[in-house]
Design a protein that fits this description.
Elements: H1 2-23, H2 26-30, H3 41-47, E1 55-60, H4 66-78, E2 84-88, H5 93-105, H6 109-114, H7 119-134, E3 137-141, H8 147-159, E4 165-169, H9 183-201, E5 205-210, H10 234-237, E6 240-245, E7 260-268, E8 275-281, E9 286-288
Parallel strand pairs: 1-5, 1-6, 2-3, 2-4, 4-5
Antiparallel strand pairs: 6-7, 7-8, 8-9
Amino acid sequence: MQEAQGGAAETIAEDIASIVERAGGVDAFLAPRIGIATPWREFDYYTGGWQKGELALIAGRPSMGKTAFALNALYHSAVRGVPAVFYSYEMTCDSIVVRLISRMARITYKDIQRGQLSANERRAALDSLATLRELPIRIVQASGKTVLAIRCHAERLKRKGKLEIAAIDYIGLIRGSAYHQNRNQELGDVCRQLKEMAGELDIPLLVLSQLSRATETRLDKRPNMGDLRDSGELENHADIIGFLFRPGYYDRGNESLRMVAELSIAKQRNGDTPTIPLIFRGEYGHFETDSGERSPA
């Protein structure tokens, strides 16, 4: 018994020594978890920010603002010098850039698309475009790419020091690289591979997901874990699952709800599961909290 206990003690001692060394010493190991900051103070309070090696699944019905949320997060990282990559399976790179310019210049997406800009707005758009060119953020058109292809691309950027956080829009459009009996199994395998990618590259990975139409049939349309479309093992592999919800989308005559949004953290492997109130300025694709952002960026 003593030998068995001694062997176990030696093994865990080696593990602890390795973990503490990777953390940078005992003080660093015992310090609060501080990840990559987000634009939302309350989110960071509960999560410590985006954590390296973790997979964050952000889900919602169409028009809840999932793409805008991910772009807000990556832009916030990039302006602070953190290299970010947005893999888009749904929208073109041009559309993503226009969304970013809209957010930065506070010009509506539609006005930019239509070219209906005043002289001041045009100047603001050009200034924002010039700023965007200098930021360490990349937009990658990912249509048709498997997880393996995305991973190889991300590995190359990581080796060059050009990737510290990434987002994928969205998981439902990713096809697995192997045969599966059904879509449920395929998505579960895709999610597992994405979790492995986050861990091996040591980056936070934000993955967007659609919710099933079941939410539309309920009186209370707030989503829950059962609404994850073809959920499979999505909830098992994700470290954080957050549901975006805008009640005003279902009550358009209620002006008081027009900018109301919330992020419900339904799962957090290492923390609490609060609901975080947000303000959504849809014309600019911009999320903020009641207390505002940390900076004008």
